[in-house]
Amino acid sequence: MLTIQAQSNIPTDFGIFRVYAFSEHEDNWNPHLVWVAENTDFTKTVNVRFHSECITGEVFHSRKCECGQQLDAAMKYMAEHGGMIVYLRQEGRNIGIINKLKAYALQEKGFDTVEANLKLGLPADARDFGVAIEMLNILKVKEINLLTNNPEKLKSLENSGIILNRRISLEIESNETNEGYLSKKKDYFGHLLEKV
């Protein structure tokens, strides 16, 4: 059972966000986070982004994915329009950074992102968006617009009690390094991408 363990206001390059740390225990060093823009009204439809942690893309600006750019774009959007980012500690589609680096090593040998995970005996995508629903319920969010290209995130809201008003696309231009990664997202996972 997740609970809010701590909260504080944090000024960012995009604006001020109220940040909530969610975990089952207060000594959890890797809690899930919810970043709420200061102009957000929970009684109305809330703009929401479910975003999974990606230390390589967000912190170190890896060009193998578009995660860091998506996070920046989502923060900018929330700061301007109101809303929240549900930041899930599910690195590498929830396989962890060590396995993610092992998968990257296999990709250097010619495997694509899905093949690399499967070769390691891991699922193609092990993320759980139910935890995001749980946090929205704790914050008493009733109706949302979801910033996503991922149909699984949309599907996670079915029978959740939370009303999905509409999807907002969050598509980032590809680069020479991540074109194959984005194509796999579209072709294998069915991501709603128009620029790939």
What would the keywords be for this entry?
7-stranded mixed beta sheet, 33% helix, 7 strands, 196 residues, globular
Mean of all residue-level pLDDT scores: 91
Query: What is the overall number of helices?
Result: 8
Rounded to the nearest angstrom, the distance between the terminal CA atoms is: 39 Å
Residue ranges: pLDDT <50 for 5 or more in a row?
none
Rounded radius of gyration (Å): 17 Å
> Which sheet architecture does the biggest sheet show?
7 strands, mixed
Order of helices and strands: EEEEHHEHHHHEHEH
Number of strands: 7
Tell the overall outline.
globular
Give the helix proportion (percent range): 25-40%
| Sequence of strands across the biggest β-sheet | 1-2-3-5-4-6-7
How much strand? 15-25%
Structural class from helices and strands?
alpha/beta
Fold and architecture overview:
Strand 2 (16-23) and strand 3 (32-37) form a beta hairpin. 33% of the residues lie in helices and 23% in strands. The chain has 196 residues and is of the alpha/beta class. The protein contains 8 helices and 7 strands, in the order ββββααβααααβαβα. The N and C termini lie far apart (39 Å). The chain has a 7-stranded mixed β-sheet, sandwiched between helices.
